[in-house]
From TrEMBL:
Organism per entry: Penicillium arizonense
Compositionally skewed regions (Basic and acidic residues) per UniProt: 329-339
Protein's name according to its UniProt entry: Uncharacterized protein
Keyword flag Transmembrane: yes
Keywords of the record: Membrane, Transmembrane, Transmembrane helix
Disordered: region residues: 329-351
Segments passing through the bilayer: 122-140, 152-173, 275-296, 377-401, 421-439
Origin: domain of life: Eukaryota
């Protein structure tokens, strides 16, 4: 306590230390990414237009996946917790009107400086959405898988999104372990609701955190060197890919936490839905099922993973299923008792009727036919079920993750700033350029057409030579 006034020398209040979402992951670029994914699905039959939309979305999502790799491989090292002694303040103090989350009824607390990386939520939104959209695209779009080069690019992007999603989910699972943070202030100077760091100086921590806090508030001139209203130990932390001066410290309001000792605020910030993750796992299983169907040397009755092809061949698929089952029970039923030499039938004891009925279903031939039909039915069910569950999962995940990002706080930039609308203009210019290139033969002169014909003939000749060499 200050002996001259009788008030506490300083107070401790719960705080949130975080790096705000980077401008590249603000609302406008994220919504543009969702729009590009949707446009890729809608224009999948056009070829060139789908390439533009999916290519732009893939490069944006690829950047997010690489950041997910960096985040999970270079996580912030936790600092050793240290005990801080603080002035004892009763719970009925009048300071609560200025310090909503004041620490009361205790003379000590445990401090371990740390900070939240809110880019993790945006990265999770992008890479998981990019992975989930792969499931409906590979079942609906034949343009994306009609040649090996395009197919290779498509599956490489899928692998990148899967790896990025795993890293982002692993990082998100460790975020709730972030220790609670505190700021230390003079009781007569309320803090700002949000404060940014001016850059931490090593001289602000003399020895232990406890000594640093007490020495800072015991010396007014030393406190003035900090350049802030409150003393935030979390400002000495750092994150990879971030400038230390971009770190923010926000006060916790009564709406964020019901009581100083509860974790309501942290549970809201670090909120997660188990059923969302369950849907993601289900989509992963279905995706693996379709990949197994496409690449393993298994002779299936299902002609393709394309829904349109399956619908056209539904009658043939059903007849093939019935034929497999019929062949599985045909031979044992038609067998006649007797020896294999063609002699007189040997009298045998009459078998019970129920065993005779079960005998065709206990042969190895029927078991193979049953497994074949079961696997094909499972593939067929997985294909149709993926068409139902994957769009629902994408919508549910986007709604959930955008709500989480909304709770993370406002964007650093508004849609009117060039850092936000520049992405939309870039995509628009890319679409215009691709559209003009598709009309190049209509816009070309006769000389250009003649040169193009000669080049195509030479290219055709080279392809024929390669084909002959392979065959």
């Amino acid at each position: 306590m200050d002996p001259s006034t009788g008030s506490p020398l300083f107070i401790a209040q719960e705080a949130l230390c975080y790096y705000p979402i980077s401008t590249i992951y603000n609302s406008c670029p994220r919504y543009l990414f969702y729009a590009l994914i949707l446009a890729s699905c809608v224009t999948r039959w056009t070829g060139w237009l789908a390439d533009v939309f999916l290519g732009a979305a893939a490069t944006y999502a690829g950047t997010a996946a690489i950041q997910a790799f960096i985040l999970v491989s270079s996580q912030q090292k936790p600092q050793e917790p240290s005990l801080i002694t603080i002035p004892f303040i009763s719970s009925n103090t009048s300071l609560r009107k200025d310090f909503s989350q004041l620490v009361t009824e205790t003379d000590h607390l445990t401090l371990a400086p740390a900070s939240l990386e809110l880019d993790a939520d945006a990265v999770l939104a992008i890479v998981v959405t990019g992975y989930l959209v792969f499931l409906p695209l590979q079942s609906w779009s034949r343009v994306l898988t009609h040649d090996r080069a395009r197919n290779l690019l498509f599956y490489l992007w899928n692998i990148l999104m899967l790896a990025g999603s795993i890293c982002a989910l692993v990082y998100a699972a460790k975020v709730p372990n972030t220790p609670r943070q505190y700021m230390f202030c003079y009781p007569d100077i309320p803090p700002y609701s949000d404060t940014s760091s001016d850059g931490w100086q090593d001289s602000w921590r003399t020895s232990t955190w406890n000594n640093s806090v007490w020495e800072t508030f015991s010396n007014v001139s030393r406190f003035g060197q900090i350049g802030d209203i409150c003393y935030n130990p979390c400002f000495n932390t750092s994150q990879i890919l971030r400038q230390q001066s971009s770190l923010h410290s926000a006060t916790v309001t009564e709406d964020d936490s019901a009581a100083p000792s509860s974790h309501g605020f942290w549970n809201k910030i670090l909120y997660s839905k188990r059923y969302i993750y369950s849907l993601i796992i289900l989509c992963l299983v279905l995706n693996c099922l379709l990949l197994v169907f496409r690449f393993l040397p298994y002779k299936s009755r299902i002609p393709s993973s394309q829904i349109v092809v399956i619908c056209k061949s539904r009658r043939k698929i059903w007849n093939d299923f019935k034929e497999d089952v019929r062949n599985g029970v045909k031979r044992p039923v038609n067998e006649k008792p007797g020896n294999e030499e063609g002699g007189t039938a040997t009298p045998v004891a009459k078998q019970p009727s129920h065993l005779r009925r079960l005998r065709p279903f206990l042969t190895w031939q029927f078991l193979k036919a049953f497994l074949h039909v079961s696997v094909d039915a499972g593939i067929l069910f997985g294909i149709f079920f993926s068409m139902i569950i994957s769009p629902f999962t994408i919508v549910a995940f986007v709604v959930w993750v955008e709500w989480t990002l909304y709770n993370d706080g406002p964007s650093q930039e508004s849609p009117q700033q060039v850092g936000q609308w520049a992405y939309l203009v870039s995509i628009a210019l890319l679409v215009i350029s691709a559209g003009i290139l598709t009309l190049k033969y209509r816009l070309a002169s006769s000389t250009e057409l003649d040169n193009e014909i000669d080049a195509l003939r030479k290219h055709l000749s080279d392809l024929e030579e390669k084909r002959e060499a392979r065959s």
